[in-house]
Design a protein that fits this description.
The protein is α+β, with helices and mostly antiparallel strands and 305 residues long. Helices cover 59% and strands 17% of the residues. Strand 6 (109-116) and strand 7 form a beta hairpin.
Length: 305
């Protein structure tokens, strides 16, 4: 009996130890499972922009947020920073996308950062894209010509010789490019103003679809920006010229000194009026203001030679 009693006690002890070990093991497994469940999924951010990013021209930027399997992740909150400053906040749509417009105001390399916020299922993520903002008078005009050709090929333009008018606009722009290459900038500006005026007449008087009207307006906007920046280049000389006007030996007479200063002030006023016309979407009038500013600055530059 003593033998069996000892064996029973030993077996009970062993069973208790095994039970305790199993409980500890199950507890550890449960903790591991909890840790696995709390690990957030990763997301991948794709940023896409138009082929070229031009100075003063609105650019569409599209953000796509997807999981590691490549599937879009909807309703992910986030923010966009440009050069470290908050530009906009967003929440992705059903297809995991968010689009916005951005207009660069300086020739520079911009740091575009997109950050997504932590959610119940997804961890935070971050993507950086460096955007080089360019300006090319010729490329803006060539792009406008390409867009006009696309419109002629892909849209039903209807009656009223609309296709012929668009062809006339294309000819004006090609002629403007020829003048620009010869450095006959005033003649180039006058051709662009005529082309822009024709675009505005098409939008105003003909009943196009809303999308086509917007395309034509966008082309006109690119044209006015091309002229604006070229004129602005000459106006940047104004600061140097004002410094020059303060040195009497640089100007032959006091009368010339005063007249040049007045001309520069007038040029700046017409340039500012041109900006106001752009804001009012009167693009051909804006070009007219820029042309006056350009002529005034050129007079001063000739006097300085």
């Amino acid at each position: 009996m003593k033998y069996w009693s000892k064996n029973i006690k030993l077996m009970i002890t062993v069973i208790c130890m095994i039970t305790l070990l199993l409980l500890q093991s199950n507890h550890a497994l449960a903790n591991q499972a909890d840790q696995v469940e709390t690990v957030k999924k990763k997301v991948i951010i794709d940023i896409s922009v138009e082929e070229y990013v031009y100075l003063l021209v609105p650019t569409t930027i599209t953000i796509l947020v997807k999981d590691t399997g490549g599937d879009p992740t909807p309703y992910i909150p986030g923010k966009v920073l440009i050069n470290g400053s908050l530009f906009t906040e967003f929440t992705t749509s059903n297809d995991g996308k968010f689009s916005f417009m951005w207009t660069p105001e300086k020739l520079a390399v911009y740091n575009l950062t997109v950050e997504t916020m932590e959610t119940e299922n997804y961890a935070t993520s971050k993507e950086i894209l460096l955007l080089t903002v360019e300006f090319s008078f010729e490329e803006l005009l060539n792009e406008a010509i390409r867009e006009l050709e696309y419109i002629k090929d892909d849209h039903v333009l209807g009656k009223h010789n609309t296709e012929k008018k668009i062809s006339t606009i294309e000819k004006d722009l090609r002629k403007a490019l020829e003048y620009y290459e010869k450095e006959e900038y005033l003649k180039a500006f006058l051709r662009i103003r005529h082309a822009t005026h024709l675009l505005e007449k098409l939008v105003k008087h003909y009943k196009f679809t809303e999308s086509l009207s917007e395309e034509l307006k966008h082309i006109a906007y690119k044209l006015v920006i091309a002229v604006r920046y070229k004129v602005e280049e000459d106006l940047k000389y104004a600061d140097d010229l004002e410094e020059c006007l303060k040195k009497p030996h640089k100007i032959k007479t006091m009368r010339m000194k005063v007249s040049n200063k007045v001309l520069l002030e007038l040029a700046q006023q017409f340039y500012d009026r041109g900006i106001n016309e752009i804001n009012a979407e009167r693009y051909s009038k804006a070009i007219s203001r820029f042309i006056v500013a350009y002529r005034l600055v050129r007079i001063v530059l000739r006097c300085e030679k």
